[in-house]
Amino acid sequence: MEKEGIILVVDDNKALLAASKLLLKSVFEEVFTLSSPKKLLQTLSERDIDVVLLDMNFEAGLNTGNEGLYWLHQIKERYPEVQVVLFTAYADIELAVRGMKEGANNFIVKPYDNTKLVETLRAAYLQKRTREGTKGEKCQTGNMYWGESPAMIRLHQLVEKVATTDANVLITGENGTGKEMLAREIHALSKRKHAAMVPVDMGAITETLFESELFGYVKGAFTDARTDRAGKFETANNGTLFLDEIGNLSYHLQAKLLTALQRRSIVRVGSNTPIPINIRLICATNRNLQEMVSKEEFREDLLYRINTIHVEIPPLRERKEDIVPLAMGFLQKYGELYQKPELQFSETAERLLESQPWLGNIRELEHAIEKAVIICEGDTVEDFYFEFPRQQSIKLDESTQTETPFQTLEEMEYKMIKAAMTQHEGNLSLVANQLGISRQTLYNKLKRYGL
């Protein structure tokens, strides 16, 4: 394993400092030690520390843990990105819970197991590194194109009001409208923007992996559980948890999710210890959850919990004034990617783009522009560089269409999947069963066709 990460150990036991440095220097790039917290903040200002292993007690005869909590607050206030693991000789679960509620990453009890100590500090470092990558990608505003349509202007005004609160948000809209991008924008405008936004595709998580993925597990919980592993809730602690495709979560798993949200804590698989979580929840779906509630397919109490604020993204066909500006943004993006920075659209190409119904919305538009950029010769993207499925050139109301005599296999597959999705109201399990394919295969095809 390549050595990476910088660790600071703060403890008044000099023998422990020497032992921990010897142990940790084989795993981490650099290990610093302090026998007193008095120079802790100065060290953090001088060194690019990733993780602090912080003792809870320093003064002789004082064992309340208040010293450790004080220095935890000082670290998180000045250096919120630094991960703090608390170190204590007193296995007090209430103190552990309090410390983690107040920003600690984890908790180690003395006497410690070497393997457990390394795994815990390593996990804290990896979590910091993940959050830094997430921050660079997700905490900048301006990635969301709001456009000029009245519906999007109203949506923008609502988002600006909601983002600065901790209210749970439910985003609805057709596939490809940009629900995840809107979630990222809300996170970037929030008070939690310096922590992680952790996305979870609920449509891609199998029922057997639900608890271990969301809540994590402890070593030995099952055959392949060789180490402790934090779940998505813990990874998103103090940040935002984004649950995409929430409507595809089975009814009995909805109860487990609701319990975690109500208790504001989770229990890892194989453990009985509750771990407090502090998250801002954003969910998204293309399904009508209110209808699902009436059919007893979605829990009404869960809907109330996730639906404090509801925002609906309109489909692209209802804001045609935004099609060409969006297309130009994608043209610039892929022009730079494929080393064709001078590209522009012809007037006929722009008219063609505006005439399409874009059943796959912004995602389909982006794919179309990328393909056109790749095959374009010269500096002008003409209309003939675009190839749309035959159903794109006819009316949306398929009941009034005259069936075309010849279709490609892809067109037939597209129509079959679309019809099954409509019949089963987006229930992927039922759709996959009807089409005779696996859920994962269906999921891949939905992405391919922009459904």
What does this structure look like?
There is one protein chain. The protein has helices at 14-24, 40-46, 66-78, 93-101, 114-138, 150-163, 179-188, 210-215, 232-235, 251-263, 289-294, 300-306, 323-337, 347-355, 361-375, 409-423, 428-435, 439-449, and strands spanning 6-10, 30-34, 51-55, 83-88, 106-109, 169-172, 197-201, 216-217, 229-230, 240-244, 265-267, 274-276, 280-285, 309-312, 344-345, 380-381. By secondary structure, it is an alpha/beta fold. The strands form five sheets. Strands 2-1-3-4-5 form a five-stranded parallel β-sheet, with helices on both faces. Strands 7-10-13-6-14 form a five-stranded parallel β-sheet. It has a two-stranded antiparallel sheet with strand order 8-9.
Proportion of residues in helical segments: 40-55%
User: Biggest β-sheet, characterized?
Assistant: 5 strands, parallel
Specify Rg, calculated over alpha carbons.
Answer: 26 Å
CATH superfamily of the largest domain: P-loop containing nucleotide triphosphate hydrolases
| Number of E strands | 16
**End-to-end gap:** 42 Å
Write down the domain tally: 4
Number of helix segments?
18
- Which regions are unreliable across 5 or more consecutive residues at pLDDT < 50? 134-142, 391-406
